Amino acid sequence: MKKALRGPGIVSVMLVALLLAGCAAPVSVAERTAPEFPGSLTQAQLENLELGEPAAFWLQAGSRLALVTWGSSSCPAVVTRMDARGSDAIELRVESSGGSGPCTADMAPTTHELEVPESVTRRPVTLALHYSDGPDARTMVLD
């Protein structure tokens, strides 16, 4: 006969499940994420990047974009959600990955390659980045 969990046993199982769920890393919606700049950037584009400021570039005009975020190289940002807002705007949710240990206090780029939603057909495209640890959205325009 099987013995059912009761009292402290069930509480212990629930606590372990909650702890494991809380430690899960956020899942990226990017097709590819790399700790570098997009390889297709020109020298002029690289020179115009501002340390700490996100930037976006077309990888394939109208269908794929690269978003460059900045932060800890051991706990890079993760794009966890992407939603089309009309035919010329995209909202992105950006969270810290939490890393697998302590986060370093460096400032490193991370490139997120994203497929543009099919309903986004007009140009320019407005990108709104919503950071999980910040109150305001950051907006940029991708021509």
How large is the radius of gyration?
19 Å
Oligomer state of the chains in this structure: single chain
Nearest-integer average pLDDT: 87
Q: Count the DSSP helices.
A: 2
- What share of the residues does DSSP label as strand, in percent? 35-45%
How would you sum up the global shape?
A: globular
Q: Walk across the major sheet and give the strand order.
A: 1-6-3-2
Query: Could you state the order of secondary-structure elements as H and E?
Result: HEHEEEEEEE
Instruction: Give me the count of strands.
Output: 8
Helix share, percent: 10-25%
Biggest sheet record:
4 strands, antiparallel
Separation of termini? 68 Å
Number of domains: 1
How does the helix and strand content classify structurally? mainly beta
**Spans of 5+ residues with little confidence (pLDDT < 50)?**
13-21
Textual characterization of the structure:
The protein has 143 residues and is mainly beta. Helices cover 15% and strands 38% of the residues. It has helices at residues 8-22, 43-48; strands at residues 32-34, 55-60, 64-71, 77-84, 89-96, 108-115, 125-131, 137-142. The longest helix has 15 residues, at 8-22. It is globular and about 50 Å long.
Topology overview:
Blueprint: H1 8-22, E1 32-34, H2 43-48, E2 55-60, E3 64-71, E4 77-84, E5 89-96, E6 108-115, E7 125-131, E8 137-142
